[in-house]
Amino acid sequence: DVDALFTAVGEHHVSAESVVAKISKALRGGDGREDQLPTTVQRSSRHRRVVRPGAGVHVEGLDDVLVRLSRCCTPVPGDEIIGFVTRGRGVSVHRADCANAVSLESGQRDRLIEVEWDEDYSGGTFVASLEVRALDRPRLLRDVSNILADHHVNILSCSMHAGGDRMAAMRFEVELGDPAHLGVVLGSIHAVDGVYECYRVLPGAAG
Q1: CB-based contacts of 193: which residues, under 8 Å, 6+ apart?
Q2: Which of 1, 29, 30, 186 is most buried (most C-beta within 10 Å)?
Q3: Residue 63's Cα: distance from chain center in Å?
Q4: Strand ranges for the chain from DSSP E
């Protein structure tokens, strides 16, 4: 439908140029077959499992449905997840322990859907939040950032606070292609001089 088309374009699953090109071809005398439409807006068929590009998640029972990883809890492969059917934005995937997901389970169970990670998925990127605590010193932020760069981890955002007790807290939001590599990255950061704690932050976790 039109809402699905707009969503597909807005979330970059289909380019606006490809939509315009196909409509123009149809107006010039195309045969109007369904396969001329972008795959994102083709009619769904049931009882199939499909992997959405960039998400790496199977949605049970639905074909060609938009899937997005929720930013409130930033799930990555290996996390226990649940799916929630949104209005006009496809399926939103949350960590099972996300506070928002717990609320959905108690109030809107009819919109929950079974999802699972694709074990063979090898594309796309995932977002994770990292917390680093260390003894403050000159060039501390540079040294930690260099570790992330050496591991080809893209830094989306960074904040740092150093208190009067000479303790520094750094928060990074990073993008990486293989979440299994996260343990190695954290180990390397922990080896930086002055760092005494580093871990993945789980925003939106219940409890």
Answers
A1: 137, 143
A2: 186
A3: 20
A4: 50-51, 57-59, 67-69, 81-85, 91-95, 112-113, 115-117, 126-135, 154-162, 167-176, 195-201
List of residues 6+ apart from 93 with CB closer than 8 A:
55, 57, 67, 68, 69, 70, 75, 81, 82, 83, 84, 115
Using CA atoms, how far residue 77 sits from 57, 116, 121, 125, 142, in Å, is 9, 9, 10, 11, 29
Least-confidence region, from 25-29, 133-137, 157-161: 25-29
Q: Token match 């060609």: residue?
A: 64
206 Cβ contact partners less than 8 Å away, ≥ 6 residues apart: 97, 98, 99, 101, 102
Q: Is the pTM of this model over 0.70?
A: no
DSSP secondary structure letters along 72-86: TT---TTS-EEEEE-
Q: Report yes or no: 140 and 168 within 8 Å, Cβ to Cβ.
A: yes
Number of H helices, E strands in the chain: 5, 11
Asked whether the beta carbons of 70 and 83 are under 8 A apart, the reply is: no
Give the integer Cα–Cα distance in Å for 162 and 164.
7
Distance from C-alpha of 143 to C-alpha of 82, rounded to nearest angstrom: 37
Q: Is there a contact between 127 and 95 (Cβ–Cβ < 8 Å)? A: no
* Angstrom distance (rounded) from CA 22 to CA 134: 55
Rounded Cα–Cα distance for residues 67 and 22 (Å): 24
pLDDT digits (tens, 9 = 90+) for 50-68: 334 445 677 766 656 778 8
- Asked if 64 contacts 37 with a C-beta cutoff of 8 angstroms, the reply is no
